[in-house]
Amino acid sequence: MRQVFNIAVVLLLGYLMADRALMRAQAGEVGTITCHQGASMVKADALKKGFGKIGALSQSENFLSSCLITGRGEVGNLVARD
Fold it and tell me: Which of 20, 32, 50, 66 has its CA 20 to 30 A from that of 72?
């Protein structure tokens, strides 16, 4: 049982490292923006949709924190990367 757990942990770490490396390699592609640029776009979009300043700021901060934690986020057809 302990061996199965160790194998699962190694596989999970390998997957996470490969995902991060792939994400770093794709960061320079056309159609990618930074997380901060994406947060600004989310805020502007929220203001256009009629949200107040506080609501738009909240959505912007939510997007930014999610993007920084996961390393990616989507704004329309653009991909935001850390």
Answer: 50
